[in-house]
């Protein structure tokens, strides 16, 4: 069993950060800006979509990650990024905003600048790559309980 599977559940939530220029040719992204924040379940996603005016397309990676892996806490961010990569959505020059919310006042955000176009056929370690053609799936909305 891989140590990363033990630490990060399904083994897809690790990233190596470096400030060495010699590592640049290995990089997919450059960190532009960060502040701290994990989004939780469906209700948090619904409110995030509504309040930030995001489309279903923008929310698809989050919703499909929640559907497939459940609430995996902060590692959800990396599953969502991997989903976008597997769908071929990340192009050179794109900015990717990762935002997450937790209990209390926890909120983190990172803005990444894509250093190259991500070609899904070369992403062998992507946790979505073997099943990406099956997604998105329809997930029915849950009505609020009115008392």
Automatic annotation (TrEMBL):
UniProt KW Acyltransferase keyword: yes
Assigned GO CC terms: membrane
Pfam families: FAE1_CUT1_RppA
The keyword Ribonucleoprotein is assigned to this record: no
FAE domain span: 1-42
Keywords tagged on the record: Acyltransferase, Transferase
Transmembrane regions listed in the UniProt entry: none
GO terms assigned for molecular function: fatty acid elongase activity
Name listed for the protein in its UniProt record: FAE domain-containing protein
């Amino acid at each position: 069993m891989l140590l990363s599977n033990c630490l990060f559940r399904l083994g897809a939530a690790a990233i190596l950060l470096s400030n060495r220029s010699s590592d640049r040719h290995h990089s997919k992204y450059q960190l532009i800006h960060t502040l701290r924040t994990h989004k939780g379940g469906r209700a948090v996603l619904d409110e995030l979509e509504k309040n930030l005016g995001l489309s279903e397309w923008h929310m698809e990676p989050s919703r499909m990650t929640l559907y497939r892996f459940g609430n995996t806490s902060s590692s959800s961010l990396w599953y969502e990024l991997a989903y976008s990569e597997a769908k071929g959505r990340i192009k050179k020059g794109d900015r990717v905003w990762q935002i997450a919310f937790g209990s209390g006042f926890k909120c983190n955000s990172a803005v990444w600048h894509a250093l190259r176009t991500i070609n899904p056929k070369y992403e062998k370690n992507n946790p979505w790559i073997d099943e990406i053609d099956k997604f998105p799936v329809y997930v029915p909305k849950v009505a609020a309980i009115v008392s």
